[in-house]
Amino acid sequence: MTTDSSPQGIPAATIIIFRNAPLGSAPEVLMPEVLMTVRSRNMTFAGGMAVFPGGRVDPADFALGEAVAAGGGITPDEAAHQIAAVRETLEETGLALGLAGNINAERAAQARAMLAEVGALAPVLEAFGWSLDLSQITPFARWFPKNERIPRVYDTRFYLANLGTGAVDVSIDHAENTHLFWT
Q1: Number of H helices and number of E strands within the chain?
Q2: Do the strands 10-23 and 26-39 form a parallel or antiparallel pair, or are they unpaired?
Q3: What's the CA gap between 161 and 141, in Å, rounded?
Q4: What pTM was estimated for this model as a whole?
C-alpha cells in the first residue's frame, strides 16, 4: 500500500466489517459474515448498489489526520483516510469502530446524531471524551484505476475490521443508504 493520494483521484476510504456468526442449523459452527449497505438509487456514485461503508475523505479528516500524525507512526494522508473510514462507518451504520472511551449503543447513537449535525469527527470526539484507536482497523488494499476511462475516479483505501462474535447494534442512516445486511 502506498501512502500518498494522487491529485487526479478523489480520496476515499471504505471498511470491510466482518463478524463470525453462528450457523443457523449448527450454532456451534461460526461462519464469517460481511456487513454491506445498499446505497440510495438517488446517489451519483453506486446508486442502488450494495457496498461497504465508506466515502470521500473530507477536509476535516485531513485536518484531524495532521494532528494524529504528529504523534508519529502514521502519515497525515494515511491517518486522514483511516479517520474517514471511522467517520463514514459511524455515520452510515452507527458502529463506533476505531474509537476508544466510554462507548455503548446509546452513546454511539448520540454521537452519530451529532456527527450528522456537525459533519466532522473531531467535535464528536471532544464532546464524548473519546479518542481514536486506529489499531482497530487494518489497512488492506488500495484501488485507484487512474488509467481507466471512467467519469469519476476514486483513490480508495480499503480497511478491515473484525467484530469477533459479539452482537452489535447497526442501523442504516436513511440518507445515503436504504438498508444494510450481513452476508
Answers
A1: 4, 9
A2: antiparallel
A3: 13
A4: 0.86
